[in-house]
Write a structure and sequence with these properties.
The protein has seven helices and 14 strands. It is globular.
Length: 264
């Protein structure tokens, strides 16, 4: 086994053990997708989960990417790739299956798009949405080998013309968008970080159940804000309400009214 193959195997084992991953399809996809194929040339700026500053990898050897580290996409904007263990955990919670239709909002450079593509298989579909033109162009190039992925440059709050079994949002919003709820298939799942202006908040999982929905808090998060996220004190209060209410018990509702659950 080469050094790179051994590093990738350790990386997958670390994530599986740390997060208690239950999906064999997810572990297989993490083992198959080369992380270095979705980044520029090294050396890379990386940082651990709790680190405040980046460090430069000792060389351009991709073996340095196979650890539970963030990699800078744009260090000036504090825009990084997702932490592998964190997003593997979230993906595992969504029970993604072969042939599922997945919409990914904020695909960045496409690494997790490729992981999702491996999970849904050739008869599934991934719509990878990215609002940043430069990132969307790069993701489109990196994802060429994945026939079941379509990269769309948009903000994710416009109609994407798909009924989705899973919608996963990789940026912070103050409230779930009504479009995302309308787009879910029966028993469809939405995962979205609901955050305040300081980027702090909670990840919420919403599942379609019959004529309504059920929401539950997953865990706390700090994440880059989504394009179009509200910037007022009222938006912060809405995000805070979701975080507090869904942490107490699962919320059942039929629709949204001014960003909050309603049975009306």
């Amino acid at each position: 086994m080469s050094d790179l193959a051994a590093a990738r195997a350790r990386y997958v084992a670390l994530i599986a053990r740390r997060e208690g991953i239950t999906s064999p399809r997810l572990l297989e996809a993490l083992a198959a997708v080369p992380r270095e194929a979705f980044l520029g040339k090294g050396p890379w700026r990386i940082k651990g989960e709790a680190a405040r500053s980046y460090r430069l990898t000792p060389s351009a050897d991709p073996v340095h990417l196979y650890d539970n580290v963030l990699v800078a996409i744009d260090a000036r904007r504090r825009l990084d790739t997702g932490l592998p263990s964190l997003w593997a955990h979230f993906i595992d919670l969504l029970d993604i299956r072969e042939r599922d239709r997945v919409v990914q909002i904020g695909c960045g450079l496409g690494y997790f798009s490729a992981v999702l593509a491996g999970m849904v298989g050739p008869k599934g579909r991934v719509i990878a949405i990215e609002c940043d033109e430069r990132l969307a162009v790069r993701a489109s190039r990196y994802l060429i080998p994945y026939d079941n992925v379509a990269v769309v440059r948009a903000d994710g709050c416009e109609d994407f013309g798909e009924v989705a079994d899973v919608i996963i949002v990789h940026a912070g919003f103050s409230q779930p968008h009504p479009l995302w709820l309308r787009s879910l298939s029966p028993r469809g799942r939405l995962l979205v970080p609901l955050t305040q202006r300081d980027r702090e908040g909670a990840v919420i999982k919403i599942t379609r159940k019959g004529r309504g929905f059920q929401a539950e808090a997953v865990q706390q998060i700090r994440i880059f804000p989504g394009h179009g996220r509200g910037t007022t004190a009222l938006d912060d209060r809405v995000a805070d309400w979701w975080q507090r209410a869904s942490a107490l018990a699962p919320l059942r509702f039929r629709r949204l009214a001014q960003g909050l659950p309603s049975d009306g």
